[in-house]
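chain below, 233 aa
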Amino acid sequence: MFISTATSHDEAARAANVAVLPIGSFEQHGGHLPLATDTLIAAAIAKRVSSDYDLLLLPPITIGCSHEHADFTGTVSISSVTLYAIVTDVAASLERAGVTKLVVVNGHGGNYVLSNVIQESNVGERRTALFPRSEDWTDARRAAGVITSNHEDMHGGEAETSILLATAPETVRSDYHDADFTIDERRNLLTIGIRAYSESGVIGRPSLATAEKGRLLLEAFSAQFKPHLTLLR
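prediction:
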């Protein structure tokens, strides 16, 4: 996982007024992907956009709100209140240092509270943005030639496995070729948890993943980030 090695002097020279904060989770992703998958993906997207647009890259928040995965060994969560507090504290600290804009790069769909953070912080003045949104994932999948949809490929599937094959291939176990599992009807997931729908913890088609798709996904995210940044500024 990439963490910026820039010094204080480096950042003073950069003088960026926009910071990028990756947020992931520490939760099961089947038997073929690591518990840190969402953090690795958020960090990869954050690294790409901060590099392409010369922004201040912050270290990732590595634990999120993963309570729907609590039945799987290794999953760890923090409360939505805690995540809310962390992000608002980071934004306030940045603002005191003269960095007035924050982009939250979210790698875990269960971090719902981040939408509320963004809503509240932008009353009166645009200060924060959340990226990528569901629509960004849809567009990136299309641009990268990913076959599955956001809904079909919810967890540990084609898109996530592809990004890790491109950025951290050593973390992907070879049995991803045989890990496919799909189920379209799962409206009660937040009530009964993901294990009630998938014993393996996977909902998606990782067998379709390739490193090239992962590379193209990151390219697409970088291109899609530009209008978000323009609007924020």
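The longest strand covers residues 18-23. The two ends are 28 Å apart (CA to CA).
thats it, cya
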